[in-house]
Write a structure and sequence with these properties.
The complex is a heterodimer of chains A (about 375) and B (about 425). Chain A has about 375 residues and is α/β, with parallel strands linked by helices. Chain A has 2 domains: about 10-95 and about 285-360, Luciferase, Domain 3 (Luciferase, domain 3); about 135-270, no CATH class. Chain A has helices at about 10-20, 30-50, 50-60, 115-135, 160-165, 190-200, 210-220, 240-245, 250-260; strands at about 75-80, 95-100, 110-115, 140-145, 170-175, 175-180, 185, 200-210, 230-235, 270, 280-285, 290, 295-300, 315-320, 330-345, 355-360. The termini of chain A are far apart. Chain B is an alpha/beta fold and about 425 residues long. Chain B has 16 helices and 19 strands. Chain B has helices spanning about 20-35, 40-55, 65-70, 75-85, 120-130, 145-155, 170-175, 185-195, 205-210, 235-240, 245-255, 280-290, 295, 305-320, 380-395, 415-420, and strands at about 1-5, 10-15, 95, 100-105, 110-115, 135-140, 160, 165-170, 175-180, 200, 220-225, 230-235, 265-270, 325, 335, 350-355, 370-375, 395-400, 420-425. Chain B has a 7-stranded mixed β-sheet, sandwiched between helices. In chain B, strands 14-15-16-13-12-17-18 form a 7-stranded mixed β-sheet, sandwiched between helices. Chain B is globular. The model of chain B has no long low-confidence stretch (mean pLDDT about 95). The chains are: A alpha/beta (about 375), B alpha/beta (about 425).
Chain lengths: ~375, ~425
Amino acid sequence: MMPDSGPDPARIAAIRDAIIAEHPYSRNDGQRSGNLLPVIRQQLTIARRSNPVINDYLRKLGIEVDAMESLEDVPPIPVQMFKLFDLRTCPEDAVVKILQSSGTTGGVPSRIPLDKSTTLSQIRALKSILADYMGKSRRIFLVIDHEGINSPAHAFSARTAGVRGLSIYARKTFYLLKEVDGELTLNMPAIREIIEKYSGEDVYAFGFTYIIWTVFCEQIRKENLRFSFRDFILFHGGGWKKMQKLAVSKETFSASVASVFGAAPRSILDFYGMAEQTGIIFVDCPEGNKHVPGFSQVIIRDPFTLEPCGIGEPGFIEVMSILADSYYDQAVLTEDIGVLVGVDDCPCGRKGRYFRFISRVEKAEARGCGDTFRE
Amino acid sequence: MFTCHLADGRFGEQSLPDLDSITGSLTGNREALASVPIDAIIRILDALGKKVLRNAGINTLPGVSFIALWLRRENLEKLCEINYADRRYIDGFRRNDLNLFMMAEPRGIVCQWIAGNMPTLGFFSLVQAILSKNASLVKMPEENIPLLLAILRDLETITIDHGGTTYHGGTVLGSIAVVSFEGKNPGDSEKFSLAADCRVIYGGSEAVRAISRLPCRDHCETIIFGPKFSFAVFDREYIESAALDRGLDLLAKDVAVFNQMACSSPHVLFLERSSIPLETLVGRLQRSFETLPPALKNQPIPSSLSSRIINIRALYRLSEGKNCTAPQDLGWTILTDENISLEDPVQGKCIFVKEVDSVDQVIPLITHRIQALSIGIPDPGKRERFAREATYRGVDRVVTPGAIHDFTLPWDGIMTLNRLVRWVILKPT
């Protein structure tokens, strides 16, 4: 364990780099706390010193950073707070970029300040995760969205984060959709070029689940188009609430999309992630489980007691990370419900915790006559 | 499509395309109810209260023991007296001071839209229709129907003797129909509304507005129990008195009962500045929450409410000049800040505590949205002055800690039984 004599940013970075450099799913869950907690302690000590808002938060919770004995003791910040507070933990002049994510609900964007070291850690972490699922060689990258989503003029969203993040293994990028008068439609010139020039190649793709289903698949079926690649992997995420309303199961989605790309359904990989924790995505393995990489941890918390849930007990998904020096991403409590499926023993061979996403929390309004005081 | 859960004295689910058969049986059965003297009806309800108290299947559920207390004969008689001046008006013509014969005739079929926030709300609504000898057609959220039916089942076996005649609980039961249907279905909602001689609507702003716009018959009366907010105010004298700890215990209970889902649930506590520091007072309120019975402290909550509580706690802990006192779990939450304002309800036992220099600072915050004000003001003169100011601005009920949910009439400023009848006259020859 690292001595708690005082935070040393260089040393934190070195330890973190070493953790990121490891195979992301090689360590048992039992080793995670010992690995991550010393880094998080140091990061929170710095956070406390550099941000009075965070200091207030920890003080009011009675948290002594050095006294935290396990990852479960690290106080999570609810994800909504990124919309309301500046949770920066680095000097202002160190910030190289502020991600503004509108997310999927509400109009106020989350503000996520990134410094150079955080950005680099996030890129390296994401590369490490993706490499485990598709190897390290660069491929043709298909974005099942329109090009504007990656434009600096466009608001940064989960879709933007996905495109930018996943493009790190891109040899050449194609956008399979285009926006015409606010409507998404097939980008036929790009699709023709891919079919003509890149059939038989190794390809990977990214898209937003709901858009893939309602726009891409629907139109590509009408056009009776099919792709044929040597190896194909699709990473997709988000929009399951809408998909549930359409009564489309994950299995139906995977089978249908796989047939379009001439691939096996196991090549269609759902992932869970968020702009507030860029750099980490929890990707489905062939067993349908989402795995937690070594620089991260996931705790499922009971929706009433907030205690960690056991295997099979649904609760709020809390995501932890050591990637950020520039903001409080050490423990973020989401508004998503998930369930821990197991620990270290997934048949796919990946170690650590594995879980499944169940649903987003419904934004139910208060019902009945007990209501607002506003007239 | 309607799902009927009770009609014509028979329990059991039945799908119906319309309400014709139900309104037909209600029209017939309400005549039988109208022929029962009000005192006999009261005695049947009194007997029901006693049975409910002995009913092990439901008597531990929140609010059920209060039903039994509320159904006591003396209480029901008083409610009738307050509403009718003389309850014999509901049994027949009586000569009044203007030398007219006057009578309170039931309106007919009272269609009731029951909100889902309080499991026992439907029952209180029903009893008021019964005490005005109306037939009831009740739309309930599915989750609250089992409790209502469990209470009503006890009516089946009640018989009482009154004036040498035997009266049956079944007669009362026959005047009640309970249905559920998709409220967003305009066709079914219109059918339900058009079946009414009187509509009673409980709900939030959106629901009340939508239902009010439904077509209804020209003679139909509409009684609205709309969106309301409640809070508490303690003055310096009360805070510094020996009554404070008991008052805080009762306030915590007021917050806990119905898990702050009721219109009468307090969401803010204003404390007049006193010799006792706010932190100490928060500590005492904390103790009151901690000593709540587990059934009140650990009420199940939906994850959407968990999320609201988690967010407001974090918001207060991240904000300067605000604080949050709470256990690790979401059992209760005390949120303190210096803004002299009301706050949007979080529910789930989240109370905002604010210190004011004078209780008079609270008065400008009061609007017609405020239903109940729980006050700890011992001085009778100050208490009445404060109540006059508060009620003038919109408060309907000024009560003491522990009594905020006591269902009595008037409620929301309405004498419900009085509104549920038509006052008719007969000119003497």
